[in-house]
């Protein structure tokens, strides 16, 4: 049981990071970037390519992340901004971001071929016993990295001027521009940060999945489920908690039902959770997480 | 406008609206430095659209809008908001998931590298509305309507703009809160601020402003002073305001 739990938390950290990536861009722009999984794939493919060409892993990973950020910004400038400029309430971005995802995926398949390529193991060869369970160093790294990134994002969001500006833009973009915020720049930064989150998820899962141009489909979908389960549409960190729930459920299903159960079980979990808590388990509208009104006596 | 004062806001031949329709047509008005001017009119007259056009929040606008020496007719909103004009909008539109002080500091976004000036502005807001000093760490969603209006006016002050735009600051407030807001506007006038106030309440406009423009059907139809209103002009206003 401990093994399922820890393995679930490890893979859930990856789902949570991709869920947070989706949630960060949604938080600021109210757009779901369906190319998020492909941004993760870009980091994996470029890192694998550069390592196989003889570059050090750190340098290759940094180049992969930068590439993801650049393509993430392009996804905003090409697939999102023109749609919002013509009609802010239009849903054209649904098709345009999906189209962008298809283009990036097929371009990757054209460049690197449709089959998987080697990815550097990073810490995948190290085993770490925890009680009666064993995690790989890579799994442990995933948990630590996701914790640091989620906490760091929340600290920046709540305690820095830029984070507060992001919150203001999320709440009322027109009013944010009326206090002097360039909301286009805020959106570009949000898309770059979310691409970086997706890219880091790619670096953490790459040693397990290897580098494949179609990697983004599966992980993009799980990231979306993580965001919806957690309630990341209201605050991005909720997507991380959603990812952990998803990861534990998927690993538990694999172990307790059959080895293919993680393909369908998360969808059942999603439907049940959305029926019980339509805005997600950890959303701000959940009474457990709603800010409390100060007592009248303190006024 | 006072003969001596130079216009801080000058609008001529302004037409603006949404979609294919102009809500305001061929508007001309001015506000002098240190002057307070009211735009009166019934619902749908186009008063708010004039303020939104000044802030660049209306995409479709023609004509000239000048603030100080700057032609802002084609400037994006965020550039106008950086010290030229600031708005306390209708409905307050605070960032409700943020504290009172965070809302105020966001108003001084373009001054963020000048900490001394931001501190001075923050102190001046707390001097104007002492109650906000006690509530500065409170979420703005937990404030009353009157307190939220104070934050909206404070946020506007924090950008230290050349012209302050207030859109119906008295709407949906208790008489006590209206009195506080009026006194704050009078204090701003003492400090030399230039105000363009959209109002439906004639008593508020005449207490605060030097001149009143009356709008109806998207056009300015009358210009008068509070003295004229008090000495019989009320019947003219009532004709438009109903």
Automatic annotation (TrEMBL), chain A:
Organismal lineage: Bacteria, Pseudomonadati, Pseudomonadota, Alphaproteobacteria, Hyphomicrobiales
Record-given protein name: Branched-chain amino acid ABC transporter permease
Pfam families the UniProt entry points to: BPD_transp_2 (PF02653)
Membrane spanning residue stretches: 6-27, 61-79, 91-113, 133-156, 177-205, 264-282
Membrane topology: Multi-pass membrane protein
Record's subcellular location: Cell membrane
Domain of life assignment: Bacteria
Chief location of this protein within or outside the cell: membrane
Keyword Iron: no
Family per similarity comment: Belongs to the binding-protein-dependent transport system permease family. LivHM subfamily.
UniProt entry keywords in alphabetical sequence: Amino-acid transport, Cell membrane, Membrane, Transmembrane, Transmembrane helix, Transport
Species of the source: Mesorhizobium qingshengii
Automatic annotation (TrEMBL), chain B:
SUPFAM superfamilies: P-loop containing nucleoside triphosphate hydrolases
Keywords recorded for this protein, A-Z: Amino-acid transport, ATP-binding, Nucleotide-binding, Transport
Residues of the ABC transporter domain: 9-242
GO molecular function annotation: ATP binding
SMART domains in UniProt: AAA (SM00382)
Stored InterPro entries: AAA+_ATPase, ABC_transporter-like_ATP-bd, ABC_transporter-like_CS, BCAA_Transport_ATP-bd_LivF, P-loop_NTPase
Gene3D superfamilies: P-loop containing nucleotide triphosphate hydrolases
Superkingdom of origin organism: Bacteria
Family affiliation: Belongs to the ABC transporter superfamily.
Name recorded for this polypeptide: ABC transporter ATP-binding protein
Lineage: Bacteria, Pseudomonadati, Pseudomonadota, Alphaproteobacteria, Hyphomicrobiales
């Amino acid at each position: 049981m401990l093994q399922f739990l820890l393995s679930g938390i490890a893979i859930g950290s990856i789902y949570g990071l991709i869920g947070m990536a989706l949630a960060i861009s949604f938080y600021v722009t109210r757009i779901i970037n369906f190319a998020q999984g492909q941004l993760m794939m870009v980091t994996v493919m470029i890192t694998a390519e550069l390592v196989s060409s003889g570059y050090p892993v750190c340098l290759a990973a940094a180049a992969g992340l930068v590439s993801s950020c650049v393509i993430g910004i392009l996804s905003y400038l090409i697939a999102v901004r023109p749609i919002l400029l013509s009609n802010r309430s239009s849903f054209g971005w649904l098709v345009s971001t999906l189209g962008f995802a298809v283009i990036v995926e097929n371009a990757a398949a054209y460049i690197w071929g449709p089959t998987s390529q080697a990815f550097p193991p990073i810490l995948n060869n190290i085993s770490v016993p925890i009680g009666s369970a064993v995690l790989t160093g890579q799994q442990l790294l995933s948990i630590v990295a996701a914790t640091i990134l989620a906490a760091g994002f929340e600290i920046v969001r709540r305690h820095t001027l830029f984070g507060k500006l992001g919150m203001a833009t999320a709440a009322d973009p027109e009013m944010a521009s009326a206090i002097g915020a360039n909301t286009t720049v805020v959106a570009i930064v949000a898309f770059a940060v979310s691409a970086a989150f997706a890219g880091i998820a790619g670096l953490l899962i790459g040693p397990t999945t290897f580098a494949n141009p179609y990697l983004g489909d599966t992980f993009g979908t799980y990231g979306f489920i993580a965001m919806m389960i957690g309630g990341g549409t209201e605050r991005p960190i909720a997507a991380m908690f959603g990812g952990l729930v998803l990861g534990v459920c998927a690993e538990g299903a694999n172990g307790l039902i059959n080895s293919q159960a993680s393909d369908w079980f998360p969808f059942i979990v999603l439907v049940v959770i959305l029926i019980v808590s339509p805005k997600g388990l950890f959303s701000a509208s959940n009474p457990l997480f709603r800010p409390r009104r100060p007592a009248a006596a303190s006024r | 406008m006072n003969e001596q004062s130079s216009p801080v806001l000058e609008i001529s031949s302004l037409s603006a609206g949404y979609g294919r329709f102009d809500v305001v047509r061929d508007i001309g008005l001015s506000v002098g430095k240190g002057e307070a001017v009211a735009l009166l009119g019934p619902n749908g007259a186009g008063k708010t659209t004039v303020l939104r056009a000044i802030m660049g929040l209306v995409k479709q606008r023609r004509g000239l809008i000048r603030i100080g020496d700057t032609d802002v007719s084609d400037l994006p909103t965020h550039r106008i908001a950086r010290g030229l004009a600031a708005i306390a909008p209708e409905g307050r539109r605070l960032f409700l998931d943020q504290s009172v002080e965070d809302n105020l500091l966001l108003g001084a976004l373009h001054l963020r590298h000048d900490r001394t000036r931001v501190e001075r502005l923050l102190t001046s807001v707390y001097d104007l509305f002492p109650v906000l000093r006690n509530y500065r760490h409170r979420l703005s969603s937990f404030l009353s309507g009157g307190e939220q209006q104070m934050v909206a006016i404070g946020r506007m002050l924090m950008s230290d703009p050349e012209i302050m735009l207030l859109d119906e600051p008295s709407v949906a407030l208790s008489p006590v809160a209206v009195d506080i807001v009026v006194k704050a506007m009078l204090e701003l006038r003492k400090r030399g601020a230039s105000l363009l106030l959209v109002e439906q309440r004639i008593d508020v406009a005449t207490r605060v402003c030097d001149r009143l423009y009356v709008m109806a059907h998207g056009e300015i139809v009358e210009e008068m002073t509070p003295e004229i209103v008090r000495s019989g002009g009320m019947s003219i206003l009532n004709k438009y305001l109903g």
